[in-house]
Amino acid sequence: MAKEKTEVTDGETKEKTVPIIEKKGEESIPPTVEAEPKATKKTNVRDVLNSIFAAFGENGTDDGKRKCPKVIRQYLKDKLGDHPIAKKYNVLILFDENSLIKSDSDKIYNAVTKFSESKPILLILYSRGGSAASAYLIGKLCREYANEEFHVAVPRFAKSAATMICCAANNIHMGSLSELGPIDPQINGLPALGLKNSVEHIAEMVKLHPESSSMFASYLDKSLSLIYLGYYERVAESAQQYAEKLLSTHKENLKRDESEIASELVYKYKDHGFVIDRAEAEEIFGEEIIKSNTDEYEFSNLVYNELTMISKFSNWVDQTAYFIGSLETEMSFLKQKKE
Fold first, then answer.
1. Domain range holding 283?
2. Is residue 82 in some structural domain?
3. Whole-model pTM?
4. What is the CATH number of the domain that holds 126?
5. I need a surface site. Which of 48, 63, 275, 299 has the fewest CB within 10 A?
6. 98 within some domain
7. Which residues contact 39 (CB under 8 A, 6 or more apart)?
8. Structurally, how many domains does the chain consist of?
9. 116 close to 85: Cβ distance less than 8 angstroms
């Protein structure tokens, strides 16, 4: 060991010892100190905001558009990927303010076929509904690729066709702000069952006022083709069939027959926007299916809050953000139309 003198502030000279490796015929060399590994910098909210403006802001570039979805994907993985629920399940997310369309089932297929581990699937579902056929395919895909169990968590709403997706789930995780809705097919923005209800209402009016029969007969003859009445009814029946088929994939957990539940979801409620809250959902599906304020629901709230924040950032630059896939999926953007 060698000694090195060090001056201290009180004027005294003190000695301290330092290790020195001595080699014959060579200059003494101090021992190597291993450098600590640098911590990987996680993507933060500012990175997300900057990437959105670099892509779609006033000075946005094509390079910015390519990088932005990758930055957001990394942010979501950093924020959510280590959560216990993300470890327990293969997580899917359907977060979309727009209507469900056929290509949405393609996005879910691309995600489920890339999962490397066989786990139960948890779908975080935030949707107003849309294509019944797309919803049916998504429900079937989730059941097919789940390891025995398929779960849905609804942080806010899963209405109409999105409720149909829920019919495929072993468990639907809901909270105080969660809502499902009637599976009420819409045609040109109007309920398919509305036409039948209108004709029934006219018939009741004629029964009360027989003298008006010729007037209503003339009106219906000029404004309504009977084939439309049959078509609209068949659309509603088709929605019931889809829901019944998805419910039958786990009918052992249902408290009632799947056809009864499907019929209730399609025909019982008179308003397309009717709120089927947690308590009402439990009456329909049963307590074996509906789960309240679980860890899965809390995780869905985390996902909802993060994606809602990104969606608000996107609105500032006239973009609608939507996310359909897994945590390995890149976010999508749609230019907002000027009114």
1. 45-181+275-335
2. yes
3. 0.78
4. 3.90.226
5. 63
6. yes
7. none
8. 1
9. no
